[in-house]
Amino acid sequence: TNMETSELAKGLGVEYVFQSSLQRYGNGFNLRCRLVEASSGTDKFINKWFIEANSLQSIVGVLVENIIGGLDLNIEGELTKIEYDPEAYQLYLKSKDLYSRSKDYDQTEQAIEIMQNVITLDDNLISAQLRLGIMYYDNGEYEKAGKLYEQSLNKSKQLEDKSNIAESLRKQGALFRKQRDYAQSLEKFNEALSIFKVMNDKSSMAKAMNSIAILYYKTKRFDEALEYWLQAYNIAKEFDDKLKISKYVNNLGIWYWKDYDYSKAIDYYNESLLIKEELGDTRNYGKTL
Question: Which SMART domains does the UniProt record give (predicted)?
């Protein structure tokens, strides 16, 4: 409803709310979008497109053009469009899905090999560089992960991609944390969080807060860890981001278990397990068990 849109906009501190849905249809996807002026409930634009499966990477450009047109903005100069190789993007999605659902070593290695091919095909696809770094990190290959995070940071700076600059910094922070260089780690996390705040990217702010909370927990700054975890959890709940909620409530469960509040810890663990089951997140299921 318009009232819900108004309340959402007020909570986010924005004047407009963008709503969208993406549904599989035939050999592609139906994309429905709506841009609403929060104060009046007026549609600035409402549209529907069919996008072929091999053209998914074009979605961002389509949305940007429609939002700019809907807001009647005057843009000085031309927008820089980053076009991804369609084959690379399809392989990127395939690798992500395979890795998230992998149940054995062979599937994990197959996902990693596919992601390596993605980067070879298209070095502008920074998400692939970050994702491959995560895969190496998960499997204990920290030197390889570090090189990928540095590569993604440099490419993001070259493309003036602030979101991926911040995410690359956050990943570097996680690596420093693993190596117990906590001062360097916190510096990276805070730098990433500052960029996300300037962008008003609340979802990514939550990720950075979670990263800082883990660091504080590891360095026995327990009260600060709880404060940051609760902030991250509450932001994720605003957007009903189930994947992030499952991670943050799992971490809250760990905190309360350490604090001997076993009843509250079990409640958080159960919430995390239920969400993981719903999402089919088999890779992280064992972390809660």
Answer: TPR
Q: List beta partners, residue 36.
A: 17, 43
CA angle, 191 then 192 then 195, to 5°: 90
Of the three residues 55, 71, 87, the one that is the final residue of a domain is: 71
Range of the domain at 223: 201-289
User: How many residues comprise the chain?
Assistant: 289
> Does any domain span residue 195?
no
Q: What CATH number does residue 247 fall under?
A: 1.25.40.10
73-132: per-residue pLDDT in tens?
A: 565 555 555 677 889 999 999 999 999 888 899 999 999 999 999 999 999 999 999 999
C-alpha distances (whole Å) from 59 to each of 30, 81, 160, 204 are: 11, 12, 20, 21
| SS3 assignment, position 46 | strand
Contact 111, 88 (CB under 8 A): no
Sign of the C-alpha dihedral computed for residues 167, 226, 234 and 14 taken in this order: negative
- Sheet hosting strand 43-52, strand order edge to edge: 16-25, 28-37, 43-52
Which of 16, 37, 71 lies at the terminal end of a domain, its last residue? 71
pLDDT tens-digit profile of 24-42? 776 667 778 888 888 787 8
Question: Would you give the DSSP letter of residue 167?
Answer: H
Question: Is the Cβ–Cβ distance between 149 and 171 less than 8 Å?
Answer: yes
User: 137 and 130 in contact (C-beta within 8 Å)?
Assistant: no
